[in-house]
Amino acid sequence: MASATKVSILDYFNIVFEGENGKIESNCKYCGTRIQAKRSVTSNFVTHLKRKHPTMYDEFVKRKDMKREGYSSGSTLNFTANVSNVRYSVPVVTGAAAGGAAGGIGSQSSVGVVGASSGGRVTKFDKHDPRQVLISEAIAKMIVQDLQPVSMVEKEGFRALLQLLEPRYTPDSQHYIRSQLLPAYAYQAQLATRQALTSAHTLSLSLDICMDKSLCSSGFLGITCHFLTCDWQMRSALLACLFLTDISLCSQILSDFEEVCFSHNVAGRAFRVVSDAFPSAVKPCCLPGFLISPLQGSKQGDEGELILNTHNREDSIPNGHNEDFEFEESLEHGLGVCRVDCFSRSLERCVKEGLCSCPQLSPTLRKASSFYHYITSAVPAEKLNQVFDTTGLHPGSIQPVLSDWAMQLKVLHRLLDSVDFLEELSGPSELSLGTSERVLLRELTDILEPFTEAWDMVHGARQTDLLTDRHVPISLAMPCVLGLCKHLSEISAVHCSALLVGLRQAVDKLLAPLLQDPLYIIATTLDPQFKLSWSNNPDWHRQVILDELNKQSNSPNPADPSTDLQAEYPSPPAPALSPVSPLSRPCKLFSFIKQRPMTQAKSLEQELSVYLREEPTDEEALHYWRRKAIDFPQLSQMAKRVFTIPACGTVVESIFTTAECCQRACDLPKNLETLIYLKANYRLLWT
Fold this sequence. Notes:
Layout lengths: L12 E6 L4 E6 L5 E5 L4 H10 L1 H19 L6 E3 L4 E3 L6 H6 L10 E3 L7 E3 L6 H16 L10 H10 L8 H25 L3 E10 L7 E10 L5 E11 L5 H14 L6 E5 L19 H4 L2 H10 L10 H16 L3 E2 L2 H14 L4 H18 L2 H8 L16 H13 L1 H8 L8 H25 L17 H14 L6 H14 L7 H8 L12 H17 L49 H10 L7 H8 L4 H10 L8 H8 L1 H4 L5 H12 L1 H5 L1
Helix pairs in contact: 1-2, 6-26, 11-16, 11-18, 14-16, 16-17, 17-18, 19-20, 22-23, 24-26
Keywords: DNA-binding, Metal-binding, Nucleus, Transcription, Transcription regulation, Zinc, Zinc-finger
Organism: Mugilogobius chulae (yellowstripe goby)
Subcellular location: Nucleus
């Protein structure tokens, strides 16, 4: 074991195995290299540090010199070596002392005083030291991932924690992080995105607009690109997050959108642009009165009102319908026929309008919410886990995402399934649900259950991880709509008849038109798990597909910049032919072999016929078309296009809903734009 009077080289390694005769195996803390040696002979460790980490080696030598000088002069600085670490028995610098050690750029000194009253000194990291850079990057990643205000780095408690964990680290100022570190990361993300887009075969774009709750007319614009790589891998990247002074100015939105497209060299290449008719019509839909999170219940004047009033946005905007129509008309004119609605938002709007048409649900849902809060406080956690563990909920740690209607409905469903068990555990209470209330809530969950299933199919893993790079194509839209229409036509309701009527009207208005849209017909047919198995008139749908594919293949790509947004990205050049064998076939020697027929290119109709004759398969769509691109070259080109259109909302849309907590804390809107941009592109930078 290293002596307490010596600085050990093992301070820079993590011991992972210790055998007989003092043999040890350690991993380098900085590069992870496995080193084998004896505890008494550490030359291998010193050599590795000297060759691979010269800065760390110089620091090791300086520490040995400081230790030698400290003991020779009777210094009060004490070192306590414990195999793989060194503890400094000096007081922690906080407040002004810590703040003075970290100014802006250039204020970081290589040597700083720690514990001046004890006379001890510790060598501070150089600003280019790998360890200094690594910690600064970790702090920046924390700020981005948690959307924390940059000003937190100068808080006294945060600096005291840093000083305790790593006294040699010099904290960066918030000015340095805001003005240089975060913009540098954003620049790296932009370069990586532009480089990836240069080789993208085809792409689509999404527009997301979030309204600032503190400033009614302002908000943020997010522009996301969904593109296919040369190996049929789907990727998404946020191109820009822009602050809007007035979200009702469609001309400004289109101008910013066009500028971003040109700066990333995607102008004229977008197959479709996913954008809703009105920007702020996509607020989260919630069950009216059913507040799961205690934080929501504590904000009766804010969150509670938001949940009850999102269904009637016209109440807060004069002439809401006229403004919606004008914005939609301007958006249609600016983006042209390439604009499509987001399927998941249309699905959510159907649920929202249905709930709005049944106001008698609110009192019962409010009582169910109170009952839920009562049992989570009265019933032991181990008992509650038997009820709510299947929904991924853990009582006492409810996440903000539970304001989502689908997750609320799952909680309500589990609550109703175990209501007798929970009432028995919690004891009699005036909050207990009566028979009529249970019947009403059960009818509500039965009616909305297929909507929840469709929502889960479209969103999937993204509900638990905002940064999940999971792309769901629009080929799911057609089967979901057909299933919902069938469900609503067969189910009957006694207590929630108004809800059923409202849902039917909303589906007919928002989702049923997709059944006649050639884009959705083609997308579903080109999905190998569906093909035309869903169709009640396959001959008609087949002809629609052929007409649309012929139109797409014959349409020229306009060169006029004014029509760039409607342009199709040209098909990539045909692959080179495979080399022919250099050995020619002798005519007489191989005369017994039948002459091979000349291969002719299949027409589009022939390709479609051969494709549809194959049985549907559960193979993932992009994997299937990557494998079948040679067999169906024309169909695969169309598949490349339609599968870039997402069926669900983007990552930045989910981030917008979580950014409200730091929006008031951030000093500048520009700072929040950068944080949102980096959080959406987190996987691009740090995975």
